[in-house]
Fold this sequence. Notes:
The chain is α/β, with parallel strands linked by helices.
Amino acid sequence: MAATTKNDATQALKELSYLAGALKAPRIIEAAARLADHARDAGWTHEEYLAAVLDREVAARNASGAQLRIRAAGFAARKTIEEFDWDAQPAVRQQVASLASGGFLTEARNVVLLGPPGTGKTHLATGLGIAAAHHGHRVLFATATDWVTRLSDAHRAGTLPQELARLRRYGLIIVDEVGYLPFEQDAANLFFQLVSSRYEHASLILTSNLPFSGWGGVFGDQAVAAAMIDRVVHHADVLTLKGASYRLRNRGIDTLPSIRTQDAAD
């Protein structure tokens, strides 16, 4: 009887191997074999065993897909939320943890990270982007200057509407370093079109070393800046990071010449 049972199990695994190959899900056979004895010993039902096997396959696929999405995002460096130094920014920890769950993406909400250079804005933006990739969302990361270059190239080629439509298919676009360099009027208008095209459709994360009151100087037009801010913050979480640059720690330098202490809501 024992030999018959063993043969039956071997035959079943062979059939599972064939079926897993046909489904292009090779991890199913690995999970099925690994969990079989445990399932019998624990007295699992057939349904519980099947759910456990499929859960392993789905988790493996999600992990593999997430790595592909992370590589395609164009991050300057891979920095996760878990690696962030919360001792420097304890006030935003709970808010970031909530955002990392990905709920803001399903609601097409934005995130704005404001603060002086070196306070962790890019790290947090990247970490939220990596979390979004793990939640199944496609992500693109670039500096504000690089985004304008990309849009300018599409505009010159006569394909700007198609490019904006294509970008709307990304669940999250990250715009780093808004405000580090001023834009000419044409560039500002292109950036405004990017923001407008995603308004209430898909999420943006923006980082800036300037309070909103300084964005008019960046975009060269107070009206354009006001309209852009209105669309960005209408459905947004605004996080203000404070303190000195982590790059200056233990260097005997407390502040940078460009840092001004202002309320982010100015």
